[in-house]
């Protein structure tokens, strides 16, 4: 049974809040965790060549090792989404840090490639928990008019983390090898775990889960913090909103992702994540190793990988602007097609200059793609299923992440660099076509309106 109601509730109280230093602090804490997670995942790009040499792996075995993190992410993203919709965002958010921090330290002491693979699965599980929960939290705290920009900026900490991983590898690989690198990555987990405690539970989730008194308490605390940040000024009055409410609103299961109101979105977003991540990780994970195979020494291959990754910084800023100025759908298609074209030309680069120029352009579009991907996905599902929907989309993406690096290891000896990057370009084109046909625009719409 459905009905249209007018009321002032948690969403209306959140949406009318001006954006202040308080919300930006919450965003900064989540973004800091995102940065260190990104460092951990991106680090394999810089140490894969060293691991290949240390454990005497062939290309297929190297590809399998690089896929292990994504196997863990596949499992973590699916499980964490359901847990976060059942038990809350904050609890799952903190446990993700415990898992990936512990796993990173274990990687440093791996005595065999099999042990290292196991620890990378555990590390990936923690990261898989992190990403959909971080998206859901930011989307539920930031008002609609700023939401797309801030989620896109959140994803911008991915290229910064990737570059940070490269700098760390560049410094530590010559000093202590890959073990020092993994050990250094696990230490920040303690710091981030502490500051994460400052992030409150999502009042939207509390209200939607029936904990109305707790939702009101948390919402009042947030309003007081915002009022303090405004120097004691009164807050704008919340505006009543009319929307359709479902009588069975709380009974949402995995199967409801395929209900008539959501099946088109689910098909689109699952396909988008699968093909986008197949292309991205199939190429990026191998960047350093491919440069080493082309004859560049370890330190120089790391340096060049860091250098071309700098293109990702203006990429995510551009995407963060376009998702609000132009829209999610158009920006997503632009970044995917740009990734396809530049990946193809990177794979056919005939000189060092072309390699760097096309590499910079490729990273510009690929990191821009990440920003809009994370801004778009959590907006497509209601609060009661946002983490589940986002988690399963991310999980299907990790299947692409898992397949991509391994397939590259298989086809590289026969297809060469141009074949590898041609495959990546094709994956991006398929993802863009899916968004063009099935995608809908969510720009500037309140979350409850999108899911009504």
Task: Tell me what the structure shows.
It contains 18 helices and 2 strands. By secondary structure, it is an all-alpha fold. It has one domain (11-231, 258-445): MFS general substrate transporter like domains (Growth Hormone, Chain: A, Up-down Bundle). The chain has a two-stranded antiparallel ribbon. Helix 2 (21-54) packs parallel to helix 12 and helix 15 (328-347) packs across helix 17 (386-438). The model is unreliable at 1-6 and 243-251 (pLDDT under 50).
The total of helices stands at: 18
- What's the CATH H-level homologous superfamily? MFS general substrate transporter like domains
Number of strands: 2
CATH topology, what is it called? Growth Hormone, Chain: A
How many domains? The number is 1
Shape: globular
**Spans of 5+ residues with little confidence (pLDDT < 50)?**
1-6, 243-251
Separation, N- and C-terminal Cα atoms:
13 Å
Q: What is the succession of H and E elements? A: EHHHHHHHHHHEHHHHHHHH
Rg (CA only):
22 Å
CATH architecture title = Up-down Bundle
How are strands sequenced across the largest beta sheet? 1-2
Amount of helix: over 70%
CATH class: Mainly Alpha
- How much of the sequence lies in strands comes to under 5%
Largest sheet: 2 strands, antiparallel
What would the average pLDDT be, to the nearest integer?
80
Q: Structural class given helices, strands, pairing?
A: mainly alpha
């Amino acid at each position: 049974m459905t009905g249209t109601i007018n009321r002032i509730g948690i969403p209306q109280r959140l949406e009318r809040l001006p954006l202040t230093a308080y919300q930006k602090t919450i965003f900064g804490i989540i973004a800091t965790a995102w940065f260190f997670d990104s460092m951990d995942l991106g680090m394999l790009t810089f140490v894969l060549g060293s691991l290949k040499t240390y454990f005497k792996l062939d290309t297929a075995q190297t590809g399998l090792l690089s896929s292990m993190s994504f196997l863990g992410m596949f499992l973590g993203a699916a499980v964490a989404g359901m847990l976060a919709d059942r038990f809350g965002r904050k609890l799952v958010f903190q446990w993700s840090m415990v898992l990936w921090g512990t796993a990173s330290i274990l990687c440093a002491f791996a005595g065999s490639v099999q042990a290292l693979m196991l620890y990378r699965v555990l590390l990936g599980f923690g990261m898989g928990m992190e990403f959909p929960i971080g998206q859901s939290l930011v989307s539920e705290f930031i008002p609609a008019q700023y939401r797309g920009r801030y989620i896109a900026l959140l994803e911008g900490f991915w290229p910064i983390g990737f570059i940070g991983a490269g700098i760390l590898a560049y410094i530590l690989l010559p000093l202590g090898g890959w073990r020092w690198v993994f050990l250094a990555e696990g230490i920040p987990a303690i710091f981030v775990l502490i500051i994460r405690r400052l992030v409150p539970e999502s009042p939207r989730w509390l209200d939607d889960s029936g904990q109305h008194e707790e939702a009101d308490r948390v919402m009042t605390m947030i309003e007081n913090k915002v009022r303090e940040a405004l120097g004691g000024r009164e807050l704008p009055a919340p505006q009543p909103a009319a929307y359709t409410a479902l009588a069975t609103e709380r009974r949402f299961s995995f199967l409801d992702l395929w209900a008539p109101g959501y099946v088109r979105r689910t098909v689109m977003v699952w396909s988008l994540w699968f093909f986008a991540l197949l292309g991205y990780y199939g190429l990026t994970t191998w960047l350093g190793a491919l440069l080493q195979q082309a004859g560049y020494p370890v330190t120089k291959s790391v340096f060049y990988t860091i250098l071309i990754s700098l293109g990702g910084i203006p990429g995510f800023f551009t995407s963060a602007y376009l998702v609000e100025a132009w829209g999610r759908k158009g920006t997503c298609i632009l970044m995917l097609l740009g990734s396809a074209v530049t990946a193809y030309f990177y794979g056919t680069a005939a000189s060092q200059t072309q390699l760097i120029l096309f590499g910079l352009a490729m990273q510009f579009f690929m990191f821009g793609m990440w920003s809009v991907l994370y801004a778009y996905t959590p907006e497509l599902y209601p609060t009661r299923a946002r983490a589940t929907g986002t988690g399963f989309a991310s999980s299907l993406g990790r299947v692409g992440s898992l397949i991509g690096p391994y397939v590259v290891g298989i086809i590289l000896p026969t297809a060469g660099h141009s074949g590898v990057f041609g495959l990546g370009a094709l994956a991006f084109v398929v993802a863009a076509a899916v968004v063009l046909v099935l995608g809908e625009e969510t720009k500037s719409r309140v979350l409850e309106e999108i899911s009504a």
